[in-house]
Amino acid sequence: MKSKHQEHARKDWDTYFMDIAYMVSTRSRCHRRHVGAVLVQGKKLLGTAYNGAPMGIEDCEEAGCMISEEYELVLNDQGAEQMVKKQRCIRTIHAEQNLLLFTDRIDREGSTVYVTDQPCWTCANMLANSGINEIVFHRPYLKDDQKVRHLMKQAGIIFRSLNMYEPPEHAAMDIKQ
């Protein structure tokens, strides 16, 4: 039997802020992926954002997805070159991009971004130039994983995954990689 202390134990800060990111992601109307991001300075929440169409513009639920297909030559696990097809929605502004649009650089200096999904290449580039010093994510985004990790290492940004994390019930959608 659990003691009263165990039943009411506080969540650690990573879990707390990732839970908030997942709850923020429930605002997304994207059929492919709900992503939420939060900006944290110390233990203070400074901003939240999710992925979606620009304000006042029909979203994918209303107007349909705008999918762009791209091909990229990557090295696979065996070191051989492999052509990878990527599909990206170009109607949607990513959660990380919205977070940067709606927060001030002065607040971002030395801060942490919690994001439900590993940033794509474009978002990683933007975050690397935003003043943050750490990115914490839960779900991997394998299409850009190697080059994003390399970029974060070059930029000196702490980049870590919460592998054992479990999102709040009903907040996480199933993602098809």
UniProtKB/TrEMBL annotation:
Q: SUPFAM superfamilies this protein is in?
A: Cytidine deaminase-like
Cofactor entry: Zn(2+)
The residues covered by the CMP/dCMP-type deaminase domain are 12-159
Pfam families, A to Z: dCMP_cyt_deam_1 (PF00383)
Q: Which domain of life is it from?
A: Bacteria
Keywords in alphabetical order, please: Hydrolase, Metal-binding, Zinc
Q: Which CDD domains match?
A: deoxycytidylate_deaminase
Q: Does the keyword Metal-binding apply?
A: yes
The entry's family comment says: Belongs to the cytidine and deoxycytidylate deaminase family.
State what protein this is by name: Deoxycytidylate deaminase
Species source reads Paenibacillus septentrionalis
